[in-house]
């Protein structure tokens, strides 16, 4: 077989990869577009010259609204769950992490006229970048911004930080350096700290504390922002139910006590903080595993604590509510994060961000003003009506300008964007606004005619006006949530069309390989029909959000079905029965592991009740399970090392091969030491911690890079034809798997060796069953049918391993801690590479690189290089086509469901994971084809 024949087998996979890149690029440009960011900014002069609200109830002493506070202290606690702040009485069961922030709870319960706790609800995606953009702009950041989470571009649209600076306010920031990426030139002073080392629980927090406390005594700022990260990092590494999480919450409680104490001490008449507002808030929540990014209640629900230090205003109210009523108020009051920017802007008296679609929150506005507010005020008597009426006039004016600003933005957005709101939506919005404005004019006349003396007339009129504006603003927000993203349907169609073209080319390439010096018949068999049906069934399941949530179980069910058919055939032919039984048992074991992963994924969500209670025995701290979790991975890794060593017997291994094998065995032994040190079963001194945390992982990485370098050298060496083509292929496959497997096992955690062993045994069983079937049937089924059945089963096994290793198709399904195994500092390229290897190691890297083991037959392929390379090329084409077909169904799914309620919480993450997986698959297939489809060593 000459070189031209080899490239005739290789070049189709390169063309297919290019077609997939084009398809993904086009579809992504159409589906994951950001909304149009308009280059317009609000100014003080806008309100006076354009707003219909001027000359209403009272004159505005501020820029747009009457300022109610002079200073604002904003303390952001990253990943602050609602149950971290709310009293444990709000929940059915008390957990160890509850009631730790006692200072906030006590103030909210004992001083409700000055302090309140709100449930703070975020819009997905719930990653820090999107939430900070949403908090400061008052808009709905779209899904594609997730890609910027590790390198955020500066915000170019209007936001309340920009408005603060433009209106002469001084802003000071400390903590998470994401703020500096979003606002690089806005802060009077800034003290940023690196935020991506999730193993570091203290650097950012200690930096915040060191600068926050002294600055509270200074008067050279108007808004102070401190962003703490310890809770977020503790969740990622240890989970919510852990000692480090409780310690962090206790630390924050002490910090907040000091902050509130200083503000109280300087809140007297003429004091520095006489009119200061404290806001303690979370940007998002987190699951029990410490993950976030999606739209579940645990991720979207965080907390907002607000406290005013204006003792004159707060003294006006004399709450007579019972403790029970206050508990209910704390547990049930909620605020949308969408409303944060406009509310803070209104309180400070600065222009509202041009692109904000939020509503000035009545409860927070009432708290600062020192009145009961709409929900707790009585309109049956006229007690304290002057204060309440004055507040309602001010708030109605705020909502008037709020509505005018939102209507102005919607008009400009629809005119400027390619796919703005529809004409029907705009008619509805215009009618709602016109009705509210007409009501405004009538309300002004009513109040002027009664000279503000009849509260029975003025208060209901003001309440009706406030309701009219609130209906308009809520309607716009809901409409934006449902239709915010601009989908370029033509680009999406072009991407989907390119994907179909790639499938046609894929099919023609497979046919071409079969026609290229054919060997054996290619008739359709029952096995090939089943394999084809399996791929279609799995692809069609992506059209349902419920099946996407259960994707791992669907793949495992299909794999188990194929194993049962093989078991039936083995019984019938009385051959390879043990292999069929072992393969089925391993499939059932993977199902069990997938169940555990799903139970962690849904630990506190609406799926929790679905999972049986017996899972807690395996996932908890039962001594038997703890013992097995330490020693089983070690035994499995020793067995893997033995199998690798045994694979070298009976062959003449060259020098480089010997080095690779020995370095791999050494790496496995280091992983054993790492596992022992991590479990601390030997009670070793603390000095060993550095070796476990840094030295051993970095040594394994270095050995892995060294082995890859040896493989590169070996690929370019020419020492004559010592081995035949099959032995050369066998040797290459062993060396490639040896080079990659230690790093993947290490990054996958303590159970990585178990999955490696399962992959090896499953592959061996599949290979022996395939050979036995071919021997019993001869070549009647043909090469294509044989490869299709076997590769489909191998692909299903790889999918099961993705979910069994604790992943799922969502950003909270990534194991972020793996990126920092061996390192404390964050370097984007290095940590991204480790994260990718851990995520795709068992589902893509090892299965694709190990595919030649599955299809090659040493008995029939020795001395027949052309048939051997044809099998490898055909197997890789089939594997690539299976991946492409499933991704095509994913594209169809998100196209159909692009307006679905769960598009950003479920369908978009599924799309991202699948297309990234397809890119990884194409890249590995291309590299493996070039590496394997050669001979002559």
TrEMBL record:
One of its GO terms (molecular function) is mannose-ethanolamine phosphotransferase activity. PANTHER family: GPI ETHANOLAMINE PHOSPHATE TRANSFERASE 3, PHOSPHATIDYLINOSITOL GLYCAN. GO terms for cellular component: endoplasmic reticulum membrane. InterPro entries: Alkaline_phosphatase_core_sf, Phosphodiest/P_Trfase, PIG-O_N, PIGO/GPI13. Belongs to the PIGG/PIGN/PIGO family. PIGO subfamily. This is GPI ethanolamine phosphate transferase 3. Pathway: Glycolipid biosynthesis; glycosylphosphatidylinositol-anchor biosynthesis. GO terms for biological process: GPI anchor biosynthetic process. Keywords: Endoplasmic reticulum, Glycoprotein, GPI-anchor biosynthesis, Membrane, Transferase, Transmembrane, Transmembrane helix. It is found in: Endoplasmic reticulum membrane. SUPFAM superfamilies: Alkaline phosphatase-like. Signal peptide: none annotated. The chain crosses the membrane at residues 9-32, 491-508, 583-603, 623-644, 656-676, 734-761, 874-894, 915-934. It is a multi-pass membrane protein. Coiled coil: none annotated. Its main location: endoplasmic reticulum. Pfam families: Phosphodiest.
């Amino acid at each position: 077989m000459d070189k031209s024949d080899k490239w005739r087998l290789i070049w189709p996979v390169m063309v297919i990869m290019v077609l997939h890149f084009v398809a993904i690029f086009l579809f992504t440009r159409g589906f994951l577009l950001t909304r149009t960011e308009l280059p317009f900014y609000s100014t003080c002069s806008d309100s006076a010259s354009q707003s219909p609200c001027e000359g209403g109830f009272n004159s505005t002493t501020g820029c747009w609204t009457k300022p109610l506070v002079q200073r604002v202290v904003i303390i952001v606690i990253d990943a602050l769950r609602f149950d971290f702040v709310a009293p444990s009485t709000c929940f059915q069961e008390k957990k160890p992490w509850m009631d730790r922030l006692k200072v906030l709870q006590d103030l909210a319960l004992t001083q409700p006229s000055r302090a309140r706790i709100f449930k703070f609800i975020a819009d997905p995606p719930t990653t820090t970048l999107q939430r900070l953009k949403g908090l400061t702009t008052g808009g709905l950041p779209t899904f594609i911004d997730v890609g910027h989470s590790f390198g955020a571009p500066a915000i170019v649209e209007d936001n309340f930080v920009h408005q603060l600076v433009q209106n002469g306010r001084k802003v000071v920031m400390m903590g998470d350096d994401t703020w500096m990426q979003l606002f690089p030139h806005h802060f009077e002073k800034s003290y940023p700290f690196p935020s991506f080392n999730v193993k570091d629980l203290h650097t950012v927090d200690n930096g915040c504390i060191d600068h926050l406390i002294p600055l509270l005594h200074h008067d050279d700022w108007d808004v102070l922002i401190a962003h703490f990260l310890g809770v977020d990092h503790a969740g990622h590494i240890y989970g919510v139910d852990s000692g480090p999480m409780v310690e962090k919450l206790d630390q924050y409680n002490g910090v907040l006590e000091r902050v509130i104490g200083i503000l109280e001490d300087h809140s007297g008449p003429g004091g520095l903080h006489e009119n200061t507002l404290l806001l303690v808030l979370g940007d998002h929540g987190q699951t029990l595993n410490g993950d976030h990014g999606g739209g579940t209640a645990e991720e979207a629900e965080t907390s907002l604590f607000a406290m005013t230090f204006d003792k004159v205003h707060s003294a006006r109210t004399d709450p007579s509510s019972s403790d029970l009523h206050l508990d209910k108020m704390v547990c049930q009051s909620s605020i949308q994060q969408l409303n944060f920017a406009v509310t803070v802007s209104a309180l400070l008296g600065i222009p509202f961000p041009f692109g904000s679609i939020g509503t000035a929150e009545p409860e927070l506005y009432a708290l600062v003003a020192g009145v009961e507010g709409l929900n707790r005020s009585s309109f049956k008597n006229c007690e304290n009506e002057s204060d309440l009426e004055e507040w309602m006039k001010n708030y109605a004016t705020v909502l008037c300008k709020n509505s005018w600003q939102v209507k102005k933005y919607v008009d400009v957005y629809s005119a400027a964007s390619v796919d703005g709101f529809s004409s029907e939506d705009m008619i509805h919005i215009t009618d709602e606004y016109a009705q509210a404005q007409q009501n405004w004019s009538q309300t002004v006349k009513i109040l002027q005619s009664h000279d503000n003396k009849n509260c029975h007339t003025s208060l209901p009129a003001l309440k009706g006006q406030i309701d009219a504006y609130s209906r308009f603003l809520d309607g716009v927000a809901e409409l934006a949530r449902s239709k915010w993203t601009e989908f370029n349907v033509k680009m999406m169609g072009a991407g989907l069309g390119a994907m179909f073209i790639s499938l046609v080319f894929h099919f023609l390439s497979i046919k071409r390989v079969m026609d290229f010096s054919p060997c054996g018949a290619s008739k359709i068999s029952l096995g090939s029909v089943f394999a084809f049906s399996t791929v279609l069934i799995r692809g069609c399941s992506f059209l349902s959000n419920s099946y996407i949530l259960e994707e791992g179980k669907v793949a495992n069910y299909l794999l188990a079905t194929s194993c049962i058919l093989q078991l039936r055939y083995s019984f019938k032919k009385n051959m390879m029965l043990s292999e069929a039984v072992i393969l089925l048992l391993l499939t059932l074991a993977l199902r069990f592991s997938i169940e555990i992963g799903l139970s962690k994924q849904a630990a506190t969500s609406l799926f929790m009740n679905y999972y049986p209670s017996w899972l807690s025995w395996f996932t908890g701290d039962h001594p038997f399970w703890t013992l097995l979790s330490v020693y089983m991975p070690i035994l499995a890794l020793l067995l893997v090392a033995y199998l690798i060593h045994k694979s070298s017997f009976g062959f003449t291994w060259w020098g480089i091969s010997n080095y690779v094998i020995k370095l791999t065995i050494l790496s496995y032994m280091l992983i054993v030491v790492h596992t022992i040190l991590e479990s601390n079963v030997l009670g070793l001194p603390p000095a060993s911690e550095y070796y476990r945390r840094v030295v051993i992982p970095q040594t394994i990485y270095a050995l892995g890079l060294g082995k890859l370098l040896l493989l590169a050298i070996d690929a370019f060496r020419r020492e004559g034809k010592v081995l035949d083509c099959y032995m050369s292929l066998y040797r290459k496959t062993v060396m490639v798997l040896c080079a990659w497997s230690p790093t993947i096992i290490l990054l996958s955690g303590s159970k990585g060796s178990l999955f490696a062993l399962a992959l090896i045994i499953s592959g061996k069983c599949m290979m022996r069953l395939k050979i036995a079937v071919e021997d019993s049937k001869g070549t009647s089924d043909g090469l294509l049918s044989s490869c299709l059945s076997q590769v489909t089963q191998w692909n299903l096994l790889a999918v099961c391993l993705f979910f069994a290793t604790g992943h799922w198709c969502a950003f909270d399904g990534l194991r972020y801690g793996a990126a920092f195994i061996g390192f404390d500092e964050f370097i984007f390229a290095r940590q991204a590479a480790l994260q990718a290897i851990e995520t795709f190691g068992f589902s893509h890297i090892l299965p694709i690189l190990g595919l030649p083991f599955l299809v090659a037959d040493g008995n029939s392929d020795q001395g027949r290089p052309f048939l051997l390379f044809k099998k490898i090329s055909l197997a890789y084409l089939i594997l690539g086509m299976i991946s492409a077909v499933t991704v095509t169904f994913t594209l169809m799914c998100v196209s159909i469901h692009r307006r679905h309620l769960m598009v950003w919480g479920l369908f978009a993450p599924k799309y991202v994971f699948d297309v990234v997986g397809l890119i990884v698959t194409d890249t590995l297939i291309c590299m493996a084809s070039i590496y394997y489809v050669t001979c002559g060593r």
